[in-house]
Amino acid sequence: MRQWACSTALAAWFCAATDGEDFHDLIEAYCAQADLRLHLSADLVARLFHASRYRFGRSIETALNAIEAALGSGDDGLTNDHFAQAWAMLEGCAPGRNVFLVDDWSSIDPDRDDSEPMVRQRGRRH
């Protein structure tokens, strides 16, 4: 996947509740330029924002990489699977930790390193 210049853009935080519809429209505009139809789940933008750590530049980068994956596959539409493929390439995550593939996507911490063992916190004894 190509590394886009926007990955170094000034961090801008945003959320699906206030910015989701506008971001969906942006993806739709990019797809129109690429002659792709949209076949996205209703929660795709929320998943994208979570995966991108709620940063605009990362969200754009992932969306552009997903469009590139769709075009590279010769598909006529953009799907969640293209986002899953793009995010897996960027993050190097296992399918069970891919925000675009799992049902309980909001419980995934995109900043957690899967190679480190999970440390259980012990409760205090009284």
Strand order of the largest sheet: 1-2
Biggest pleated sheet = 2 strands, parallel
Q: Give the SSE string.
A: HEHHEH
Helicity, as a percent range: 40-55%
- Indicate the overall shape: globular
Which class of secondary structure composition applies to the elements?
mainly alpha
- What is the strand content? under 5%
- E-strand count: 2
Poorly predicted tracts of residues = 2-11, 117-124
Mean pLDDT: 82
Rg, Å, rounded: 16 Å
Helix tally?
4
End-to-end separation in angstroms reads: 53 Å
What would the keywords be for this entry?
single chain, 126 residues, mainly alpha, two-stranded parallel sheet, 4 helices, 44% helix, globular, disordered C terminus
Notes on the protein architecture:
This protein has helices spanning 16-33, 44-51, 56-72, 80-91, and strands spanning 37-39, 77-79. It has 126 residues and is mainly α. The longest helix has 18 residues, at 16-33. The radius of gyration is 16 Å and the shape is globular. The N and C termini lie far apart (53 Å). Residues 2-11 and 117-124 have low confidence and may be disordered.
